[in-house]
Specification:
mainly alpha; calcium; metal-binding; Glycosyl_Hydrolase_47; binds 1-deoxymannojirimycin; 3-stranded antiparallel sheet; 20 strands; globular; 584 residues; 10% strand
Length: 584
Amino acid sequence: MRLVRDDPGLPLYNTTSPKGHTFRRIRARARHWFSTRNTPTKACIIFTILLSIFVLITICSQGEAKREQPIVENPEIIINEQVIAGQKTKHSKEESAENLKPVHDIDRQIVEDEMDAPETGGGNEKIVKFTGPTNDRQKAVVKAFQHAWIGYKKYAWGHDTLKPVSKSYSDWFDTGLTIVDGLDTAIIMGLEDEATEATEWIQNTLTFEKDRMVNFFECTIRVLGGMMSAFHLTGKKMFLEKSVDLGDRLLSAFKSPSPIPYSDVNLLKRTATNPQWGADSSLSEVTTVQLEYRALSRASGNSTYEDLTFNVFKHIHKIGCETHEGLCGMFINANTGNFKKDSTITFGARSDSFYEYLFKQWIQTGKTIDWLKEDYGKAMKAMEKYLYRNSKPNKMFFIGELLSGQTYSPKMDHLVCFIAGTLSQGSQHGFPRKHLDMAEKIGETCHNMYDNPTGLGPEIAHFNMIPGKEDLYVKPLDAHCLLRPEAIEAWFYLYRFTGDKKYQEWGWSAFQAIEKYARIPTGGYSSISNVKQINVRFRDSMESFLLGETFKYLYLLLGDDQTVLPLDKWVFTTEGHPLPIYDH
Ligand code: DMJ
């Protein structure tokens, strides 16, 4: 067999085959036919051939694309029809989230597939979609969220906080706090329009070029946490990019001489200072940012965020809080790195979420860091020994405080109710059954705190420890209500772990009280001045956590489907923003 070139530039072919003769005949005829046509006809023919080739290539390449696997920035969340059951996926960074369907197109349902862990962290993730409200109570909560959103949109859009009574707003960080804090709740509720509005505002308007001091902790848990959660729920890379920008600025807090960060940061100048009111940082403020920065590190591939913030816990672990067997004082100094001597020990304001993040970091890191678990277990033992008491005459269990580290005070902030959620969660992860008992008792006390003419809970309650008539009383200056989430958060966890429907009933009653006494007809809800007066005085402020936490936990608590955002795949930050659990 001999191979020759029939015509320079043509491909080689076998000249002896009958196919070769046929081909030459066809080509000769074509040449003849073509040479007898005029120029416009020839142009037309060439154009038609080129067009056909183009159409063919396009069809083929689309076919190829369809055969490719889903393109997802954060593989733990798989969106809608891109999921192919049982298949595992690898995907490139460039192809990532830009190709995802927009938030409002997300089909929300749980699918039981698992995806490859992303290179930068994650693992064990389930595919998550949301289906919206499943019953009338959930629908009512969704309506309430929308009512809050409408008020905020009308009178405060782009500002931090709605003042619903005066139909105006206030700014704290000037970062559209209510939008960013509330976005993931809108997504979880299946509110497509609200989620789209928030996403577009964050994308097009939100900037952190702000020459103002912001609180490192509050800005982290509300803004960074909100955006990281939105990133993980939607896969939109924009949220991650914004988070990196904000995280870089906020980490200026670590320009202190010790591993303990300063409390306040200038976002534009990237400078940081102690709080204006004193030399020390609050324990909770320096120890309640780690879930957010770890998520940022794992998603961005830059370990600095995680390393710097985790150093805070390593440092506290090293110096220890031995005088009270793992219970730490409420103040720590960013210059020296030391605790203030004899400061108050509490599970309320200034300390609360230290204990929450001891536990939740252990969960977030796939239960691989033993000393977190040990320190948490030790602290809970000490809490029981030093702070956990019951009232007279009806034995309401509560967690009091040690003033100046010494004097017992039977005072419990509403904030403390969070611990019932954390304790109950711990009981599912190897901590003693007693933790669940304590959680149920504290959860019940939190419910008792709502036993007021308005049905709302006060900021602080005091408990009676000597024979008397009333178990708990509320001082006039403690009687206000910011519509905080902690009691409802606790009932959400307790319901998940016990299935006892009384927790849903308690949540529903609290919701009805919010509707009755805090709703402002023109839009939004307001904090109130005294839970004991049905002749309500409004404080004219709607805190962003009403949308970020209170309505979210209500919605989740009241659902028929308690597998939404499963707690072995997701960990809720202290601001109620779900983040993925990693395997290390
Ligand atoms: C929220 O901002 C967070 O839960 C924080 O940890 C303390 N409490 C408020 C809401 O009450």
